[in-house]
């Protein structure tokens, strides 16, 4: 065993203007067979000022404050007491077979044994909520480097769910165009951890990352097993493990509660994925909104009658969640914004056009 002793040498302190910077001497002791030696002096220079942190700093893949507003007149049991602005972020589209969205959309019959599949382009979205008590982001979309031989997504996902959109459709570009940096967002709520919703988590290294505990456990399990057959992008997850992110897991029995005034976290539990979360947002000049994400893909899934999706971890849980969303919408006089509904998303006011409040 070597014992290393560190000491500072105030060299030049007696020579007036010939003073030299502090240096460090290392004295190493051998095991008895070798004599002690003095290691060469190591110059220790004063630490340089840290470089400013980039606004959006990606991680390489593995091999406007608001003034308080008067309390609005109550329209429903859930009403925020302070103003907020919700911005709809268009993050491109996924091109896929409609059967993934609505099960049995295309069915073979005796008269038509080989019906053609129907490719559709579904929206990918996120929602940025300005709030005086801390800004909130709901979902993060796909990672900009999803494609290619060294892309974040495995080849099977690239083939089945390719992203359609320009280079500036990804979340970092959308927020930067609004003058928003990652450190300005206090809470990042993830509906679930699939690759088209959680791709940009790594950018938010000072935010609270809110995810359902069962969803986090499921993603970790697929990562540990190197299972590339699911919509979890394992290279995304591996990147998260290398960062000191502020994860905040929502327990399976944890009740719904406000993250900030007027923004309520909805604990949907299993359904489309292992642990789904949503938001109920109270707006002053518009109907309240339930951000359902993939707890309900489209109005066609919502019904009535309810139609199951083609991708679902727990079909009974999915049906139960639809019933719960319907009850919440009625009780809170809220509109339901679905996760991938084409005509509904086209009708929404995008961040480049304005906001909802």
UniProtKB/TrEMBL annotation:
Taxonomy, superkingdom: Bacteria
Region (Disordered) location: 1-23, 45-68
Record's keyword annotation contains Metal-binding: yes
Molecular functions per Gene Ontology: hydrolase activity; metal ion binding
Domain Metallo-beta-lactamase residues, every copy: 123-340
Database matches in CDD domains: AHL_lactonase_MBL-fold
Cofactor: Zn(2+)
Keywords: Hydrolase, Metal-binding, Zinc
InterPro entries: MBL_superfamily_lactonases, Metallo-B-lactamas, RibonucZ/Hydroxyglut_hydro
PANTHER family found in the cross-reference section: 102 KBASES UNSTABLE REGION: FROM 1 TO 119443, QUORUM-QUENCHING LACTONASE YTNP-RELATED-RELATED
Protein family (similarity comment): Belongs to the metallo-beta-lactamase superfamily.
Name of this chain's protein: N-acyl homoserine lactonase AiiB
Organism: Hypericibacter adhaerens
Gene (UniProt): aiiB
């Amino acid at each position: 065993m070597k014992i290393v002793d560190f000491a500072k040498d105030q060299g030049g302190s007696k020579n007036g203007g010939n003073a030299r910077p502090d240096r460090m001497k290392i004295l190493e002791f051998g095991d008895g067979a070798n004599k002690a030696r003095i290691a060469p002096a190591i110059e220790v220079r004063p630490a340089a000022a840290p470089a400013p942190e980039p606004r959006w700093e990606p991680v390489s893949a593995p091999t406007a404050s608001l003034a308080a507003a008067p309390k609005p007149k109550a329209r429903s049991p859930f009403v925020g007491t302070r103003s907020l602005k919700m911005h709809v972020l268009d993050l491109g589209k996924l091109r896929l077979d409609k059967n993934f969205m609505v099960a049995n959309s295309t069915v073979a019959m005796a008269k038509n044994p080989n019906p053609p599949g129907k490719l559709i382009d579904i929206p990918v979205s996120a929602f940025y909520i300005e709030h005086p008590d801390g800004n909130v982001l709901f979902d993060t979309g796909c990672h900009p480097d999803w494609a290619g031989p060294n892309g974040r997504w495995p080849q099977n996902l690239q083939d089945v769910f390719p992203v359609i959109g320009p280079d500036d459709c990804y979340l970092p570009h959308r927020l930067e165009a609004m003058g928003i940096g990652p450190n300005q967002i206090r809470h990042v709520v993830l509906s679930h951890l699939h690759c088209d919703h959680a791709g940009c988590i790594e950018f938010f290294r000072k935010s609270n990352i809110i995810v359902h505990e069962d969803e986090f456990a499921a993603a970790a399990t697929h990562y540990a097993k190197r299972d590339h057959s699911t919509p979890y992008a394992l290279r995304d997850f591996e990147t998260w493990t290398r960062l000191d992110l502020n994860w905040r897991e929502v327990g399976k029995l944890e009740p719904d509660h406000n993250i900030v005034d007027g923004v309520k976290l909805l604990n949907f539990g299993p359904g489309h994925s292992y642990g789904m979360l949503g938001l109920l947002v109270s707006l002053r000049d518009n109907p309240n909104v339930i951000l359902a994400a993939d707890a309900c893909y489209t109005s066609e899934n919502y019904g009535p009658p309810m139609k199951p999706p083609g991708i679902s971890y727990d079909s009974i849980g999915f049906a139960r969640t639809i019933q719960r969303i319907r009850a919440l919408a009625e009780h809170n006089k809220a509109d339901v914004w679905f996760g991938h509904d084409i005509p509904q998303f086209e009708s929404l006011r995008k961040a480049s056009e304005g906001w909802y409040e």
